[in-house]
Amino acid sequence: MKISEQWLREWVPVKLKTAELAERLTMAGLEVGAVTPVAPALERVVVGEIRKVAPHPQADRLWVCEVQVGKAKPLTIVCGADNAAVGLKAPVALVGATLPDGTRIEATEIRGVASAGMLCSAAELGLDEDAGGLLELDAGLRPGTPLTQALRLDDHQLEIDLTPNRADCLSVAGLARELSALTGVAVKSPPIKAAAVRGTKRVTLTLQAKADCPRYAGRVIEGIDPRARTPWWMRERLRRAGVRSIHPVVDVTNYVMLELGQPMHAFDLDALSGGIVVRAARAGESLALLDGTTIKPPAGTLLIADSKRPLALAGIMGGQDSAVEAGTTNIFLESAWFRPQAIGPRARALGLHTESSHRFERGVDPDLQRRALERATALLTQIVGGCPGPVVEQRAGAQLPKRRAIALRSARVARLLGIDIPAKDIAATFKRLGLRAVRTGQGWRVTPPSWRFDLQGECDLIEEIARLTGYEKLPVTRPKAVLSPGALPEGRLEAARLRDILIDRDYQEAITYSFVDPAVQELTHPGVQPVALTNPIASDLAVMRLGLWPGLLQVLRHNLNRQQERVRLFEIGRRFVPEGGQTREPAVIAGLVTGDAYSRQWGLAARPVDFHDAKGDVEVLLAAGGQGAGFRFLPFEHPALHPGQTAEIRTADGQNPGQIGVLGRLHPAIAVKLAIDRPVFLFELDLDTLTRATVPCFREISRFPAIRRDLALVVDIGIPAARVLDGIRQTAGELLTNLQLFDEYRGEGIDSGRKSLALGLTFQDSSRTLREAEVEALMKQLIQALSSTMGATLRQ
What we know:
Layout lengths: L1 E3 H7 L6 H10 L3 E7 L7 E11 L7 E6 L6 E5 L9 E5 L14 E3 L2 E3 L2 E2 L27 H4 L5 E6 L10 H12 L21 E3 L7 E8 L9 H9 L7 H13 L3 E5 L7 E5 L6 E2 L5 E2 L6 E4 L4 E4 L3 E2 L12 E7 L2 H10 L5 H6 L8 H15 L3 E2 L3 E4 L10 E4 H8 L5 H10 L3 E4 L3 E5 L10 H12 L25 H10 L3 E2 L5 E2 L1 H7 L18 E2 L4 H12 L6 E8 L2 E3 L2 E3 L2 E8 L16 H13 L7 E5 L5 E11 L6 E9 L1 H6 L6 E7 H4 L16 E10 L4 H12 L3 E10 L8 E10 L8 H19 L2 E2 L2
Parallel strand pairs: 11-14, 26-29
Antiparallel strand pairs: 1-10, 2-10, 3-4, 3-6, 4-5, 6-9, 7-8, 12-20, 12-21, 12-22, 13-20, 14-17, 15-16, 17-18, 18-19, 23-25, 24-25, 27-28, 29-32, 30-31, 32-36, 33-34, 34-35, 35-36, 37-39, 37-40, 38-39
């Protein structure tokens, strides 16, 4: 929430400096995320009054203006604004001023006419995006007054990051109550009186959905001035709160929402047919919204309607057909209370989030509606005139929330806070917060006010005592506990070890949401129906992830959009796989690499990362538990990965046979859909398998010499090297102590469709010296076995 510091100080005139005010709010749990000046420095910019306007003798679209700026003689200024007129008061940048865009104002000559300054628009002063003409100032301002003083621009915008339970502070009134409780300075709220009823017209109200809307009030205001403009002071307060000025009626409803916390809406009375009906949506209905979209509200969605059609999404957004427009002269002003559960889920399901829904889904004071209606009426009649009619209201009291008393035990306060707070201080805290407290034998019975719907239990009250006492005053007490490290099985590898391995290999850990974008997940896991969220926080976070790749790919896109060329990411987390009516949640470790294989340096030529780089990283993970030789990489097809550059990782150790992971290059077609313009390599491995380790055991190093033989075998291209290695190990038995594949060759001297594998074999016995004849016989046996099983021949 953004709000003007000056506006808040009008309600609570504290003598704190801006930084102290922000610190006080933050320490009370209302975190001030940013404090920003509402306007740039505007030195030598003053209020000017145009006394004369004449056409420029040498230019059709320019005017020569005489402008009074509080000096003995008016200034002559050449201006091109269409709204330059006698009597208009507008900002003047005097000679020597520097505008926010860096423009320095000098005395100059424009088409033969001297110009001593510049009449300014709001955009030129950095106050608005509108550059459609001179900024029209209030007629009561005195020429020559510095603009910063005239518009009170020595102000700050406070950006307050409220937690969802503190919706009562989504207004100046709510923040003022908090600041008053924190400082003891009394709140000075503007007086709100019932408006004088001068009209007789009423609109009938019907509440068909009383459970979702138990209170609805409104009134007709006839004969408003369609030419009226929102005064500058209101436009400025809206701007400083991050709200754009639209129309005087809309501006007033937004102003009251920011001031009191009650969202409101105004309908063009002449566009209504019959009375107002608050009801649930019916099948087949459609509604054109103010943002230009047309929706078909799902059945059960709460609507504001008339006798013929829907008019608005209740508590979310108004409809286009009944909106207040430039020519509107009669309006119906509404002020209602909606059940939060009826607004939040529907707004998210429709992909809508407005200032109104933001408040209603968190909770609005159910006693505020009539007061807000009177405040808006007073402001409207002041700005646009009109004749207010009587207030009409429908109220289902049994459906409105009740503030029930909460029992608070004194002993519980001391136990949770670790400090004895005097009873009189606790009672004073309750009074400052507007809580009604009655003393009991064990403590108090406390009844929250209507706006504090977050106070539900004893712990909530204790939190309030801690906040107003000051968290910094609570003692720091270390918990008393017997700490003993748990036993770590030798056959288990910690996931932290796998993290360290990837970090050492230049990866960075990512932590992504467990719920992902359905469209991205459909690309990586096509045809698989994921677990859908009943109440997603956003439309692009609507389903549970079937794997970690969708989240990592989103992180990659985020980095590529910020010119990060070399990205190496990994994540450890759970995936959620529907299976037999249940949801299986296996833990996996996934990774993503793209860009150069190494950071740019003088010692190595730059080259892009390839499949074998990613495979090397996976092999290090597989070897961490001492079982690296027990895994095999086999050709595989995966819908999200590039054919021919994809492998599955399998183990066949007799204990956990089957696929334990996948590795490959992202399919080019998917990369195009995700706007990724470079090769990306992905892997995902079962975490349980990786954390299963082999317990080391002692084996004496042989005292007898080893014998090495190199072997060059020619086999078909389609035979994996792993199959050849497995065949050698199986035939050689225990005498083979080391086996290495150190070269693969295809080309001249090798038949087409064949490849040469160069292997190093080391033989050794732990109890005796091997004889050459034994090794030669074993080598012949190996060659014969490989020849018969896979057609291998010795390379000539």
